[in-house]
Amino acid sequence: MTPALALALLVLAPRPPPAAAAAAPPAGEADLRERLEAALGGIDVPAAPQAWRALGPGAVAPLLAVARDPDQPPSRRARAAQGLGHLGGPEAAGALPVLAADEAAPFSLRAAALEGAGRLLRPAEAVRTLGPVMRGARPGAVRAVAAEVLAARAPAAACGEIRAQLAREAPAARGSFARAADRCKAAAR
């Protein structure tokens, strides 16, 4: 046997599992925690929708806890809301509009909550729950995001309200509504 063949057989030989693996927590819990931290901790690149969905329904409760926690950094809270919008379910669908309407919440969280709610709510529910945010939220950027979500999710029901809101906005703020207005124009064709 050549030395190269002996080395190859040694490297490729099966190895027994390490002893520490037996003392590790259940793979499901530890794996979920690790994947949640990776998804919430991404700074430059947000987690893809498939990555959020791959976490499964067991991730909803921890993501809700992060999104609702004012002691968490705003970017982490926003990523949690983003994850909820991709995971779905009744808890997420109920919590996201509440987060979007919270005037004390940071813009990034509110925007992510609006986008997630737009994904999860039926068109009529979206108009009913996100319409008040579009009409009354502060700052105006939140109103613009709500308008854009409504124009995408329920153009037939929402575009009249979006045009009325646009008319109420100060001229300097109307540019923020351009994407919503463009979606409404495209839907009318």
Helix/strand layout:
Layout: H1 3-12, H2 27-41, H3 49-55, H4 60-68, H5 74-87, H6 90-101, H7 107-120, H8 123-136, H9 140-153, H10 155-168, H11 178-188
Describe the protein's architecture and organization.
It is a single chain. The protein is an all-alpha fold. 71% of the residues lie in helices and 0% in strands. Helix 4 runs parallel beside helix 6 (90-101) and helix 6 (90-101) runs antiparallel to helix 7 (107-120). The chain is elongated. It starts with a helix and ends with a helix. The model is unreliable at 3-26 (pLDDT under 50).
User: Termini, distance in Å?
Assistant: 77 Å
Query: How many separate helices?
Result: 11
Q: Main sheet, how many strands, which sense, barrel?
A: none
Strand content: under 5%
pLDDT < 50 runs, ≥5 residues = 3-26
Number of E-type strands? 0
Structural class: mainly alpha
What is the averaged pLDDT score? 87
Principal-axes geometry comes out as elongated
Helix content range of the residues, please?
over 70%
Order of helices and strands: HHHHHHHHHHH
Our Rg estimate from Cα atoms comes to 23 Å
